[in-house]
Design a protein that fits this description.
14 strands, binds pyridoxal-5'-phosphate, globular, seven-stranded mixed sheet, five-stranded mixed sheet, alpha/beta
């Protein structure tokens, strides 16, 4: 293990959590469903969680573990586990905490798919209820907390509105109620922000976006600060009570590793939302260059956003790093070096103008993806956010005249010229 604290972020991106016993430069893909046991005692110990080692790749796999170790290292966290998607990461994080009848206080500024997950499927199928709140309003968050609340869930910089949360203040509030704060940090990535430094308990990621960076895989991760005392109240029985199948309490046995180990030993075992080692190696490669790519994504995005502000066809450019954004002060505060390159623009001429922009750009690819090396464009109201009600769309700031841009790694002047010619049509 490399001592993470000695290095700056750029070096950590390449060297954190590296297993020094591997002599290949790049992580080998261990494409194996299962693993050999040394003897019967070792096999029995592994199954009883009395020993550390690989059994079956639904639970652990060396390539996937290398990625988990690297992500844990980047956050100075006690552990991490990877999942088959960002949504699976969120699901397994909640599944470690909630039983039927429990409650989540969630930001109303979330990725559209997360709103759907929290407000339709979770309550319908698991009776996990959610209250959506304005995450910039501490009083609203506090009022939404009930005795059944097991988590506060938010995006550090939201997709696509760029609302930046005051994680420190929210974590302080959550601490008073003995509730963990779960932060989806997909947009700033660990390069621009470590939510754990601001008090977050758990950090989730979609690896499908900036971290892998070129849209080759779907994946997710859950990073565990290890800082939450799961035994402080009677709320987190899944972690504190004796788990029947293993005949042990995760919290009593594994202390600050309880969340991570239950996520793997129960979550991945029973829900099976495992990341493939073939996908993990793509995310590992992505982490090698994350810092360089994120700097360029941000530089390009701020240039393009500033140009769009001057274009007469544009009503408003909604980007966290522009002075007129509702959480610009907060963005300057916790994202001093930049963040996601995704933002929205509202066209003065409404839906028709929005469609025309999407249809007339040449460089931007028309796609529901964000955080790719290529610049991307989409009309959210009729696509990514079409499953939301009109009320939810309004709350999420996705009107019919809004277009979402994800600025890639091309030359910024070429991107500006492309938008300029498309807006002129
Ligand atoms: C894409 C995305 C997700 C979901 O991730 P998948 O890998 O697509 O399941 C969650 N949160 C944010 C902010 C996202 O952009």
């Amino acid at each position: 293990m490399v001592e993470n604290l000695k290095y700056n972020k750029e070096t950590q991106s390449l060297h954190s959590g590296v297993n020094q016993s591997i002599d290949s430069l790049q992580y080998p893909v261990v494409g194996s469903t299962a693993f050999k046991f040394a003897d019967s005692k070792t096999a029995a110990d592994l199954f009883a969680l009395q020993a550390v080692g690989n059994i079956y790749s639904r639970l652990t796999n060396p390539t996937v573990d290398a990625l988990s170790g690297k992500l844990a290292g980047l956050h100075n966290a006690v552990g991490a586990f990877c999942t088959s998607s960002g949504h699976a990461a969120q699901f397994l994080a909640f599944a470690n905490l909630l039983t039927p009848g429990d409650h989540i206080v969630a930001s109303k500024y979330l990725y559209g798919g997360s709103i759907t997950q929290l407000t339709y499927t979770f309550p319908l199928q698991f009776n996990w209820q959610s209250t959506l709140v304005d995450i910039t309003n501490l009083q609203e968050i506090e009022q939404a907390i009930t005795p059944k609340t097991k988590a506060i869930f938010l995006e550090s910089q939201s997709n696509p509105h760029g609302v930046v949360a005051d994680i420190k203040a929210i974590s302080t509030l959550a601490n008073q109620y003995g509730i963990p704060v779960i932060v989806d940090n997909t947009f700033p990535t660990p390069y621009f922000l470590n939510p754990i430094e601001h008090g977050a308990t758990i950090v989730t990621y979609s690896l499908s976006k900036y971290i892998t960076g070129n849209s080759t895989i779907i994946g997710g991760a859950v990073v565990d600060s290890g800082a939450f005392d799961w035994g402080q109240n009677d709320k987190f029985k899944l972690l504190t009570q004796v788990e029947t199948s293993y005949e042990l309490s995760f919290f009593e046995t594994f202390k600050n590793m309880a969340f991570t180990l239950r996520g793997i030993a129960v979550g991945l075992r029973d829900f099976g939302t495992t990341l493939s080692p073939f996908a993990a190696v793509e995310a590992l490669k992505g982490l090698d260059t994350l810092h360089v790519r994120m700097q360029r994504h941000y530089e390009n995005a701020i240039k393009v956003a500033r140009y769009l502000e001057t274009n007469p066809a544009i009503g408003k450019v909604n980007y966290s790093f522009l002075d007129n954004h509702i959480t610009n002060k907060q963005a300057k505060n916790i994202l001093p070096n930049g963040g996601s390159s995704v933002f929205t623009v509202a066209l003065k001429q409404g839906y028709e103008a929005a469609k025309s922009l999407v249809d007339n750009v040449n460089i931007f690819l028309h796609s529901a993806q964000v955080g790719d090396a290529h610049s991307l464009i989409i009309h959210p109201a009729s696509t990514t956010h079409s499953q939301l009600t009109d009320d939810q769309k309004t709350k999420a700031g996705i009107a019919n005249n809004v277009v979402r841009l994800s600025i890639g790694l091309e030359n910024a002047d070429d991107l500006i010229a492309d938008l300029d010619q498309a807006l002129a049509k």
